[in-house]
Amino acid sequence: MKNSFLIFIYLITVLLLTSCGKGEVKKVSGESKLAQEAFELAETIRNAYIKNDRETLERNFTADGYREFIGAIKNCDSAELTFTPLWVEIEDSSVSLNVSWKGTWMVEGKRTEERGVAVFVLEGRPLKLSHTLRANPFRQPE
Predict the structure, then answer these.
(1) Which domain holds residue 93?
(2) Does residue 72 lie in a domain region?
(3) Rg of the chain on CA atoms, in Å
(4) Is 92 among the domain residues?
(5) Under a CB-based contact definition with an 8 Å cutoff, are residues 79 and 93 in contact?
(6) Three-state DSSP class for 112?
(7) Cβ atoms of residues 88 and 120 within 8 Å
(8) 93 burial type by CB count under 10 A (0-12 exposed, 13-18 middle, 19+ buried)
(9) Beta strand pairing status for 78-91 and 94-107?
(10) Are the C-beta atoms of residues 115 and 136 closer than 8 Å to each other?
(11) 3-class secondary structure, 11
């Protein structure tokens, strides 16, 4: 009796494991891929800004976006910047990435801390930063 109970439990376990392991894997949607690309672009731009890597920045902005960026940035000795993505809106050919940011800048020994929410408007394929709305982290320290 004890052996037949163990065999029964074993069979049930095998059936459960094999029946739960099969199924169709859902494909990642195009919108999800686009949102992931937007997050990666924001992180690339953030890293390039901190390192003052103008070549990488220019490569990841549209022509007009880079001109806007160059006109907005302030000189500083060092910068720390963190982005926290809040929301992504995808409309036709553009993506709006809402980002909460927090930054610390050192200018001539003076430390400045700021925070805000920016909207990065991304366009093209691959995505490039076209312009920044609301509290632009690249205009700091003001």
Answers:
(1) 31-139
(2) yes
(3) 24
(4) yes
(5) no
(6) strand
(7) no
(8) exposed
(9) antiparallel
(10) no
(11) helix
* Residues composing the chain: 142
Tens digits of residue pLDDT in 30-87: 788 889 999 999 999 999 999 999 999 999 999 999 999 998 888 888 999 999 999 9
> What's the pTM value of the predicted model, to 2 decimals?
0.78
Q: Is 3 inside a domain boundary?
A: no
CA neighbor of 122 nearest in space, from 97, 100, 99: 97
Beta bridge mates, 115? 102
Q: How many domains does the chain have?
A: 1
Q: Is residue 120 part of a domain?
A: yes
Domain CATH for 72:
3.10.450.50
Q: What is the pLDDT of residues 98-132, one digit of tens each?
A: 999 999 999 998 999 999 999 999 999 899 999 99
